[in-house]
Amino acid sequence: MGSNGYLPLFATRPARGLVQFRLYVASIFVGICFIWFFRVSYFPVEGKTERWAWVGMFLAELWFSFYFFITVVVRWNPVFRYTFKNRLSSRYDEEALPEVDIFVCTADPGIEPPIMVINTVLSVMAYDYPPEKLSIYLSDDGGSDLTFYALLEAARFSEVWLPFCRKLKVEPRSPEAYFLTTPEPVDNSVIAKEWLLIKKSYEEMKMRIETITKLGKIPADIRKEHKGFREWDFVSSRRDHQAILQILIDGRDPNAMDIEGKPLPTLVYLAREKRPQYHHNFKAGALNALIRVSSSISNASFILNVDCDMYSNNSEAIRDALCFFLDEEKGHEIAYVQFPQSFSNLTKNDIYGSSLRIIMELELAGFDGNGGPCYIGTGCFHRRETLCGMKYRKEFKIEWRTMKKHRTTKESASVLEENCKALASFTYEESTQWGKEVGLKYGCPVEDVLTGLSIQSRGWRSVYFTPGRKAFLGVVPTTLLQSLVQHKRWTEGDFQIFLSKHCPFVYGRERMCLKLQLSYCLFLLWPVNCFATLYYVIVPSFCLLKGISLFPKGMEAQSEVG
């Protein structure tokens, strides 16, 4: 029970088995001490090559010992969170719940097929949450009319998909994933008939989208169906075009209803302006454009961002996140709630370690115990103010029941579209703090980690939550080349942060505890491991081939006598 006599909306519990783990760590530490003693006591006195090889081995072992210490700091006290959604429902009726903006990002219809993108969009449109309080924004950095066409199809299909999800309590709410994993119901003929009807409707939509995608262009008769296609008359290329913004479903419109007469979420398509002579800052730039545009259309207090290849697998994820933000005692301290990344296309043996299992199941929980997880770029709920650069203050507290609705704009959808295009122009951020102190950070390949570090350095906490049912499912690289490219980007970005002014020991020294600063080094110093590892792999083998001993002669003699 909370200090004011209320029941909290979430609980925090330490991981099980900590005593055994700490005993294991103690035994490893004893072994490390023996290694140090061995290296110092039996330092070779003859042979220059032997001495330098020995010194190199000792330095590598010192580095491994230091990195082991950092790993222990992260894994010493992992915590796990548990939410009480029933308490949330009893305190906040649907009218009192806050609005939520959802950002979905895509960049290339060739790599990220439009049918995959709209499955993610439909899965977040169908959350178990009042639809009039949801606004979904698709950022298309590829500026593709194929993706726009697919989203237009998804807007139409949502009129039957959302009622179907509510009626059958569908999980997951990505149509592709649902029909792939769920057999036809046979117990109820009425429901079975409806199930087959919806499946047929989805497959027809999928066929239309894939046919157009293979064709590579939108036929003239389809272009006449929506005014938005006229925007592509002025597009030179995907890297040279004006801002394109279309409100496909206006949640304020009383006619925006599904087949059961329930309101539909707002659905917006955005392709920010791009010009070849300007740098556009990749995903960070796209998200910052979405933050600005959404502030003029829906301006929800909370923002969820997901990648287009990571669909919602748990329809209650929003309510789970709100259990943290709306908690009366600790909610005002929390800037973002990070969910794990989980994947649906892992190979049988996962030979490239693409599941990131240790990171997702243990190390981010360890971060949480040390002050809060880092931001990993997707599956994360943010407080809008923190993304916009707000510093934490103890007096920061919001009473949601007395808040006025955010959607105060009276302009029509067409007027909003024109007005918001300026917010997505390539010149808007010139001479501003966007990308520096406001929004996601620029200038780093891992803009997500840097942005989370920046938020925590302003005094905010974050939370890592692993629900019983995985909140999001995505896809990972399945080939060696794809994995190497991904890891190269991560390691370059992480080490760049450590060497920059954003190093946690400098940037976060005032507001971040030392344990959290050290925890970041687990990732930021990961690339440096390669030097010690390569030395340990190559040099002993080379010395063995050349007959150079890395062990004292006295020990060799003892082993021969034995």
Description:
It is globular and about 85 Å long. The model is unreliable at 555-562 (pLDDT under 50). By secondary structure, it is of the alpha/beta class. The chain has helices at 18-41, 48-75, 85-91, 114-125, 145-168, 175-181, 189-215, 220-223, 282-297, 317-325, 357-369, 384-387, 413-421, 447-457, 480-499, 504-507, 514-524, 529-545, 553-561, and strands at 10-14, 79-83, 100-106, 134-140, 244-249, 266-271, 302-307, 311-312, 334-338, 342-343, 380-383, 461-464, 472-474. The termini are far apart.
Mean pLDDT: 92
Strand numbers in spatial order across the main sheet: 5-6-4-3-7-11-9-12
How far apart, in Å, are the first and last alpha carbons? 66 Å
Q: Radius of gyration in whole Å, from Cα?
A: 27 Å
Number of strands: 13
Tell me the strand percentage band: 5-15%
> Helical stretch count?
19
Unreliable runs: 555-562
Largest sheet: 8 strands, mixed
Shape: globular
Structural class: alpha/beta
- Give the helix proportion (percent range): 40-55%
Topology:
Elements: E1 10-14, H1 18-41, H2 48-75, E2 79-83, H3 85-91, E3 100-106, H4 114-125, E4 134-140, H5 145-168, H6 175-181, H7 189-215, H8 220-223, E5 244-249, E6 266-271, H9 282-297, E7 302-307, E8 311-312, H10 317-325, E9 334-338, E10 342-343, H11 357-369, E11 380-383, H12 384-387, H13 413-421, H14 447-457, E12 461-464, E13 472-474, H15 480-499, H16 504-507, H17 514-524, H18 529-545, H19 553-561
Parallel strand pairs: 3-4, 3-7, 4-6, 9-12, 10-13
Antiparallel strand pairs: 1-2, 5-6, 7-11, 8-13, 9-11
Helix pairs in contact: 1-2, 2-11, 2-17, 2-18, 4-5, 5-7
